[in-house]
Every structure is written in structure tokens, then in C-alpha cells.
């Protein structure tokens, strides 16, 4: 299983044909209290860079983009009643969607965890 | 103000930074949008205990003259002459079309008026005062004073430790009182729906006084983010959003702020337009809106009727931490303005069900006296 990060603070964890997508812990800290997540519909076809979800904090709405191309096969239903999962465990229980990936090599250009941590340090 | 202009700082800037405030540009000033606790906790803390807000970016103006209460009534529809010394009133400057130029609070003091205006409208308002009152009254901007708000159910207990005279002050009254040994203007007012005070103090002493207030267990610093969600839940208008030069007091459902005497006299800017609108009812009206579900509907979200026709727009909207639900206000046609009316909100292109709702969303808890 490989986990990669985008410059827009999404993470994607690929296991075989399935990619799980969410936002980084850094992103949830920046957003503050998450009060709503609009997840995509199961069956939706996402191209890399498409709008996958919208995260609403008390103050503002932020778009989340698909880090990889694929079909949405599952969404995190738990976020509907408990959006604060994103704050509590952004890179675990706070995942947004799972995609069926056709070309996992798309993730090759993304940052690994060490590179992402360096990238985030540079934003401070 | 242009983008290249240096952002102004209030006397409390260094304290905000020390407290971990996330500073953002607001009305020309660098102001804290939130502290490390975050908007949700700050909001709930204010409803539960007491929050301290820096509102020094707002304009503080003193108007002096032979009869400043009479003079200022040329510019606004409020009953200022009817105020006793030490009483204050919410009003708004109107233009000849009946539109609102700014909303403000006028306090009648022994010999003059103390007026607090919005930061973004400060220069415009001062110009309106100076031009409109020329020959009758002088307009002095208090550049060396800061303004903070202490809001919440514990605000009275806390401030009484500094001066117990504050305890018996009713809502919308003014006194000059020593707080931490400093001569302050204290009003029992605020914009959160909670009991509380606004305290005008010399800027040189502002940090000292705020540190003492923050040292009290019940008090936490609160940023602009929670200030906005608190006032929205309280059903209070934000100028430039819920009220503009294109909205009249009638559309804004602020008729309670236009006294009977002033309607009869009809001698304020835009009186003809406003009185005609009172008689004939406005086409559009500000209402409270409760979206169903958890998705917030933000400012500029389109409002549709049940047939899908776009009929209006959200002017303030977000998540209400006390309500634990999204809340909004906006303008709808009069025929859709009754509480309980079903409407739809076009959130990111998708129609979401909502209802016109009674405001305030959270009960106001002002201290009206024993």
C-alpha cells in the first residue's frame, strides 16, 4: 500500500485497484471545525483534478480534488452525521471516498509522506 | 482602500498575535479571525461564559453642538431627541432613495452624542456628519481610543469585579466608569445576542485592561469568525451584506428603529420612499432561513421558489454552532416571506430544501433591568 499527497493537501492510499482519498491532517488543522462534507455519488467517474468533494468549515467551503482518475465505488457515509471525523482522524476514519483506479501510475508524480511534510514546512 | 495600502493595526494587535490569533485583513485592518481554540469553541464559549472581542476598528465619533440630538436627526430616522442622557439607540444613515448608508449606534450623553460606526463605512460616515451638520455641530473622531466588547452570560459578573456599577445598567445604556483604574465609556450593548458590554478605553491602556479581563477564568479571546456566527444566530444584520445602499429599512425589517414621531415628521433622507414603502409594502423582504440537512448555504447562494424560479439571494449564511445546524438570512419576495414557507437554496447548483424561519435563531438574552 502506498500513500501519496498532493500540493492541494489531498492524500490517496492505493491498495491494488482501490484508492482511498481524503485530506491531510495539515489541511484539517487549517480548515478548523468541519461541519459538513459533500461527498460524490457512487458511480461517478472522476478524472484526476476533478472536484471530488466539498468540505465546509464554520467559516468557508473548500473544494477537494481527485488526486487520481477512477470511478467512485464507495463514500464515507459516516461523515453525514459526524463530519468532525475529518478533524479527529483526517488520514484515517475521516476519509471521503474510494475510487476504482485504472492507472495507479498516475500517483507516481505525487509526494510521499516525507516530501509532503517538507512541502508543508515550506508553507509556514 | 487599495490592495497596496498598508493594513492598519489596532492597539491590541500585539496581544492578538501573542494569543495565537490568526490575523486576516478586514475593513483595512489586520484583525484576528480566530484564536487556537477555533471558531466553534469560541462561539460556544461566548454563549456559555464570556468572550472578549476587539472592535477597535470601528469608528468612535463625538458630535457636539447646541442641540446635537436635533441636528443628527436630519441624517437618520431614529428618535435621538427622545433619548435621555445615558441612553442609546440603533439607527442607520439613509440616502435620498431610502437606502441604508450604514447602521450605527447613537448614545446621548449629557452634552453631546457618542456614535459608533462600522469600520468599512467610517470615512463615508464622518463626511456625511461633517457635511450634514456643518454650522450646527462639530464632529470629532476619537482616534486614540480602543473599543472592546465583553459578551456572554458571565460578562456582568466579570466586569462587576472591576466596577460593580455595571451590574444594574440596563441594556442600551451608557455610563462613564473606571475600569481597572482607567476612565472608560461603558455601554451595556453588543452584537452577539448575549448580555454584555462594549468598553471604549484610551488606546494606551487597552492592552493592560484586556490582559486583566482575560485573566478572569470566564473570559476567552474571540475572533471575527465567531463574532459573525454569533450575530447571525442572533438575527442581527451585517452592513454591506444584509444591508446595503440598495436596501431600505422596510425591506430590511428594521421599521422598529423608525419611531412614530419621525414617520410623522418625515424629515430624514429618503423619508418619502420609505413611507411609501411602509404603506404599500416592499416587493422584497429580509427573512431568516433554516436549510434542511447539514449543508450550509453561504452569502450569494440563490434562493428559488418551489417551482425552481430564482427569486432572491442569501445575504449571510453559515453554520450556527449553538444551533448545530446551518442558518442563514436573505431577501425573498413578500409572498414567500411568511415563517414556515418552503423554499429551495441552490447550493453548488443543487437545489436543497429550506424553510423561512423566525429570527432570532437563538434567544436574545439582554439585561432589561429588574
Describe, in plain words, how this protein is organized in 3D.
The complex is a heterodimer of chains A (124) and B (370). Chain A is an alpha+beta fold and 124 residues long. Chain A has helices spanning 25-31, 78-81, 85-88, 113-121; strands at 2-5, 10-15, 18-23, 34-38, 45-46, 51-57, 61-65, 70-75, 97-101. A 6-stranded antiparallel β-sheet of chain A has the order 1-2-3-9-8-5. Chain A has a 3-stranded antiparallel β-sheet with strand order 4-6-7. Helices cover 21% and strands 34% of the residues of chain B. At the A-B interface, strand 4 and strand 6 of A face helix 2 and helix 7 of B.
Number of strands of chain B: 19
- Helix and strand content put the structural class of chain A at alpha+beta
The assigned structural class of chain B equals alpha+beta
Numbering strands along the chain, what is their spatial order in the largest sheet of chain B? 10-11-12-9-3-13
Strand content of chain A: 35-45%
The percent range for strand residues of chain B is: 25-35%
Q: Give me the strand/helix succession of chain B.
A: HEEHEEHEEEHEEHEEEHEHHHEEEEEE
State the helical fraction of chain B.
10-25%
Round the mean pLDDT of chain A to the nearest integer and report it.
Answer: 95
Largest interface: A-B, 14 and 19 residues
The whole-angstrom Rg of chain A is 13 Å
- Report the average pLDDT across residues of chain B: 96
Largest sheet of chain B: 6 strands, mixed
Amino acid at each position: 500500500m502506498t500513500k501519496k499527497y498532493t500540493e492541494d493537501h489531498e492524500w490517496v492510499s492505493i491498495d491494488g485497484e482501490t484508492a482511498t482519498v481524503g485530506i491531510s491532517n495539515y489541511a484539517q488543522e487549517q480548515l478548523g471545525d468541519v461541519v459538513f462534507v459533500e461527498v460524490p455519488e457512487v458511480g461517478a467517474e472522476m478524472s484526476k483534478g476533478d472536484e471530488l468533494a466539498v468540505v465546509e468549515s464554520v467559516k468557508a467551503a473548500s473544494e477537494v480534488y481527485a488526486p487520481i482518475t477512477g470511478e467512485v465505488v464507495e463514500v464515507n457515509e459516516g461523515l453525514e452525521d459526524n463530519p468532525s471525523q475529518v478533524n479527529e482522524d483526517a488520514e484515517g476514519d475521516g476519509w471521503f471516498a474510494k475510487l476504482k483506479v485504472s492507472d495507479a501510475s498516475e500517483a507516481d508524480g505525487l509526494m510521499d509522506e516525507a516530501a509532503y511534510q517538507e512541502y508543508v514546512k515550506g508553507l509556514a | 482602500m487599495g490592495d497596496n495600502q498598508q493594513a492598519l493595526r489596532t492597539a491590541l494587535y500585539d496581544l492578538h498575535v501573542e494569543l495565537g490569533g490568526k490575523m486576516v485583513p478586514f475593513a483595512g485592518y489586520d484583525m484576528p479571525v480566530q484564536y487556537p481554540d477555533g471558531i466553534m469553541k469560541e462561539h460556544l464559549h461566548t454563549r456559555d461564559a464570556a468572550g472578549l472581542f476587539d472592535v477597535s476598528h470601528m469608528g468612535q465619533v463625538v458630535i457636539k453642538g447646541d442641540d446635537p440630538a436635533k441636528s443628527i436627526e436630519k441624517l437618520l430616522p431614529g428618535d435621538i431627541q427622545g433619548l435621555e442622557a445615558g441612553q442609546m439607540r440603533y439607527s442607520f444613515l439613509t440616502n435620498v432613495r431610502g437606502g441604508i448608508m450604514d447602521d450605527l449606534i447613537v448614545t446621548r450623553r449629557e452634552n453631546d452624542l457618542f456614535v459608533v460606526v462600522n469600520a468599512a463605512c467610517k470615512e463615508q460616515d464622518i463626511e456625511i456628519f461633517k457635511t450634514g451638520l456643518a454650522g450646527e455641530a462639530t464632529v470629532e473622531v476619537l482616534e486614540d481610543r480602543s473599543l472592546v466588547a465583553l459578551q456572554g452570560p458571565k460578562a456582568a459578573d466579570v466586569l462587576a469585579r472591576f466596577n460593580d456599577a455595571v451590574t444594574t445598567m440596563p441594556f442600551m445604556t451608557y455610563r462613564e466608569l473606571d475600569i481597572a483604574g482607567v476612565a472608560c465609556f461603558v455601554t451595556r450593548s453588543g452584537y452577539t445576542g448575549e448580555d454584555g458590554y462594549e468598553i471604549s478605553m484610551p488606546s494606551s491602556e487597552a492592552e493592560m485592561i484586556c490582559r486583566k479581563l482575560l485573566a478572569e477564568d470566564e473570559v476567552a479571546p474571540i475572533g471575527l469568525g465567531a463574532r459573525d456566527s454569533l450575530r447571525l444566530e442572533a438575527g442581527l444584520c451585517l452592513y454591506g451584506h444584509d444591508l446595503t445602499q440598495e436596501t431600505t429599512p422596510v425591506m430590511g425589517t428594521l421599521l422598529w428603529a423608525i419611531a412614530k414621531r419621525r414617520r410623522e415628521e418625515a424629515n430624514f433622507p429618503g423619508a418619502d420612499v420609505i413611507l411609501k414603502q411602509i404603506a404599500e409594502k416592499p416587493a422584497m423582504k429580509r427573512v431568516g432561513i433554516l436549510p434542511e440537512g447539514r449543508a450550509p448555504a453561504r452569502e450569494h447562494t440563490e434562493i428559488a421558489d418551489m417551482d425552481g424560479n430564482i427569486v432572491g439571494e442569501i445575504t449571510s449564511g453559515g453554520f450556527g454552532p449553538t444551533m448545530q445546524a446551518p442558518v442563514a438570512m436573505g431577501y425573498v419576495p413578500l409572498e414567500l416571506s411568511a415563517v414556515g414557507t418552503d423554499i429551495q437554496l441552490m447550493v453548488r447548483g443543487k437545489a436543497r430544501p429550506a424553510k423561512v424561519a423566525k429570527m432570532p435563531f437563538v434567544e436574545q438574552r439582554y439585561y432589561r433591568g429588574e
